[in-house]
Amino acid sequence: MSGPAPDSGRLTVIGVRHHSPACAGLVRRRIAALRPAFVLIEGPVDFNPHLPDLALGHDLPVAIFSFRADATGSAASYTPFCAFSPEWQALEAGRAVGAQTLFCDLPAWDPAFGRRANRYADPHGARTEAAERALAAALGVADQDALWDVLAEAASEAELPARLDRYFALLRPPGTDDPAEAARERFMGAYAAHALRAAGDRPVVLVCGGWHADAVRRHAAQADGTRPEPAPPEPDLRTGSYVVPYAYLRLDRFSGYAAGMPAPGYYERVAEAGLAPAADWAMTAITAALREAGQVVSTADRIAWRVHAEALARLRAHPAILRADLIDAALAALVKDALDRPPAWAAGGAAPGHPALAAMLRALTGRREGRLAPGTRQPPLVADVAERLRAADLEPGPARRSIDLDWAEPGDRARAHLLHRLALLGLPGIAREGPDRAEPGLPRERFTLVRHPHWLGALIEASLWGGTLEMAAAARISARVEAAPDSLAVLTGALSDALFAGLTLEGDLLARLSAGIAAAHDVAALGAAGAGIVRLYRFGDAFAPSRPALARLCAALAARALFVVEGIREPRAGLGAIPLLLACRDLFREVGAEVAGLDELRGPFAAMLGRRLADPETPPALAGAALGFRVACGAAGSDPEAALSRLRRFGLPATLGDFLAGLFALAREEIAADATLASVEGLVAAWGDEDFLRALPSLRMAFAWFPPRERERIAVAILRRSGLGEARAEVEALAWMRQRARPADQAEALAREARVAARLARYGLT
Amino acid sequence: MAKAVRAGGDREARQRPPAEDVHAAELARLRAEDSAPRPPGWQLSLQAVRRFICGDGATPAKVVCAPALVERAMVTLATSRALLLIGEPGTAKSLLSELLAAAISGCSTLTIQGGASLTEDQIRYGWNYALLVAEGPSPRALVPGALHTGLSAGRIVRFEELTRCPLEVQDSLLSVLSDRVLAVPELTGADGMVYARDGFNLIATANTRDRGVNEMSAALKRRFGFETVFPIADLEAELALVQREATALLARSGVPRSPDPEVLELLVTCFRELREAVDTEGTGMERLSSVMSTAEAVSVAHAIGVKGHFLRGDAGQPEDIVACLAGTAAKDDAEDLARLRRYLDQRVSRRSGAAWRQLYAARHLLTPQ
């Protein structure tokens, strides 16, 4: 195996593991010793003009958030820094020695950069995995992270550079090319060559992932020294790079098998104070976390844990207690259970095997959250949102405030649009409290608003969607539609959100919706979409500019329903058709002539339902709904008396409940005369107990269409018919309405009693 | 000679010699080479024990498990807690405990076999009643149990299947494990207290299928360090282990040939799939409730080899697997037989390769004739 290419004279390439304290220390010492003219760092080159932003005195961790967005979609990429990141130390050390400090990697929008969410995720293939496994086995450690600790974090300053070189050479043999990374490495190499030329006879330091170091050296030796320019972004591509606050929790979540170090909370202490004090901190942090979770960690346990960890570290010849010793010892001393699966705390996302172990790992992650210094450059969206909130007097404050909005008031509508747009961006601290949007009539809404610590970060990251609030909200909806272009539920949700947010409806969404409605076969999905669309239409002039488009959708809905309902055969589909027929009932009964083309459908629709009603094959729920529809819309030959005769045809235990569910759903007000109920009662009274129990679930479903007050009235009527006095009936009905035991349990009890009675009868014991 | 047979049995004819005898040469070599510090009462340093169990360049590992587990176990034994190995049946818990005891104390035979009928006397000490009646309680009349011997000699005591013992018997360990002393109230003076010498500790094993560790008293739990032993994660490692063990067992049974590698791979693959409920392509499937352990695979491989050699004169056929699987699966649960049938019908039927086809063709053997 040939060794890595040597640093050629003035260029020093330091290959690091991202977020490694040992590497951070190495970078700091090298830069201080070499006092280079340039410090180049693996980071987005397009951020170079804004580098002073990073020196403003932020609370770390922060990240450079880069995005690219065009009509076809968007992508975001992060370049995270914490205080002990080698890249951050390079920035600071470079500034301290007066070097010119620059990022030298491709911008995140460059096609060759690909769609990686984390710039510092080093590639990891089957080969590297095998190499690391072999190395771990040879050194007697369990996983990649433990291996790194033994190799690098526990190494002395003198040994570290040679160990890193050998380690990285093992992962990627020197001289090999990685096609996926070649463009970035060529760019960094060319940038180094350019810096060397500009530096005259002074040295240049380049800090990058260890994976790239050898390739960058090679490319630097071959490059001619002209400054590499990234390909300019395509004309309609929106790009940007901004500093955002970051958090240890997010940093740890990134650390899959490929990326950086786990447990940032722990390594922060390693960087600050060294391995032994970090182990002390970790033991205290883990104990606190376990105790907080209600686990007993006695002083004796802590002593045993400490002894165990020390012994393990000595057995493994570690200079101090390392992270693996710490957790291994905790596993032996603190976990008093059998584990469900082999313990795994290596990076890689596998479940750690025991809840206590998971809690320990969380404790090591730490809770630190970054904060931006005042005066940090922000994307235009931040200013746009701030300006709009101020104009509407809706700025979030430290205390949560409620905002009540009435869509009947034009002033409130503008505020509602604003709040809905913010909610679409998923900004923290803003929430819509209600009411349920299914209520008819113009909605009243309540939002709550509070200044959330993550507000600014989320808003900067939302600028991925657009430069203004309106643009960002619209892009958010488009992305949702793109993700599920054939789902009626998603499309209707998007339509509703767009209308509430006061966004112009895009032709694309409407075209997709009409096409989706025209091709729909799933009755339940069509019904849910139809209910949503009809409700939006019935809000009237709240959505005035979009009313013609909504009317066209309504007409398409009725036409499709006419076709779909004709073909329903399955009993389940019959029940599923109820919401669709409800939507159609509202359309024909209340919208009618307003919508072009609807009146022409009225006759055929009623006729179709008449056919279905006469057809003996029609599922009972659909027959009930068809009858209800005709009664509610006043079709010829359909009056409540006709309903009574139909009722008898469906009066069997297997069909009555479904039939009534359809009927009550569509024509509750028209049909709920006592005559109908008395006839239902008559039918049910003729059944045996077993039949009744079989029919009970569907009957309950049918009567669920009545609001509680009406159900109580029905109960009173039934009790009166059974001979109770008025006062008594009311008391009894109230008791029925306020039952403690679940009806299902009561039915079960009845069934058991019946079985007992049958058995007693069999043995002649009654 | 006659004395030797009485005392330890004829060494050549013993069915299963203890680990310290089997690996006597290796232990002696390790002791000679060992220069690292040893915990008091230990015959080897921790590093040497690790080399003995996990192997080094020259010798293979004796147990397939994570080195970290062995390290934790040793450290637990070297500190003040006892060790409890928990796991599914057949995951080499007892083997690991035997190897640890052999390496640490040079003696793995101070063993208490747990069970529902175990009493305190069998653990601690009993009496030679003839002497007791004749002389009254005296050290001569006392018959030391494993715990008594372990304490006074400073050795590791093994307690197999701890959770199968009645709770009160389990709790008789409490005072010994915390105060490291066993009181013999019948004796007076120095004989009345047996203090633990350096090197004494306890390795218990418990089985997750039996009454679990959940029923152990919290007081006893506190005195143990828990280690869960898992089935072997790696197919190659398990295959190699089954091959090695089955060959050794076959040799002892007078079968000169080693098992057919193809049949063995089939067997181990079946066992792994049925145990983990995931087939080799990663698709989920039904889990057998019977124990499909590596130990069980070894004994099935042994049975197949014996059957093939003595009945037909070959090294075993794939269809023998079906017959043995039926026996294994029907041990615990009749429903497992149906699961096994579905496994053969749904998974094995789709596999290519002559051995898999043969296995599938023999599925009628699942139905008793």
Automatic annotation (TrEMBL), chain A:
Database matches in InterPro entries: DUF5682 (IPR043737)
Pfam families, per the entry: DUF5682
UniProt superkingdom: Bacteria
Protein name stated in the entry: Uncharacterized protein
Source organism of this protein record: Methylobacterium fujisawaense
Automatic annotation (TrEMBL), chain B:
Positions of region (Disordered): 1-22
Compositional bias ranges of the Basic and acidic residues kind: 8-22
Domain named AAA+ ATPase: residues: 79-234
UniProt cross-references to Pfam families, sorted A to Z: AAA_5 (PF07728)
Alphabetical list of SUPFAM superfamilies matching this protein: P-loop containing nucleoside triphosphate hydrolases
Name of the protein: MoxR-like ATPase
Species of the source: Methylobacterium fujisawaense
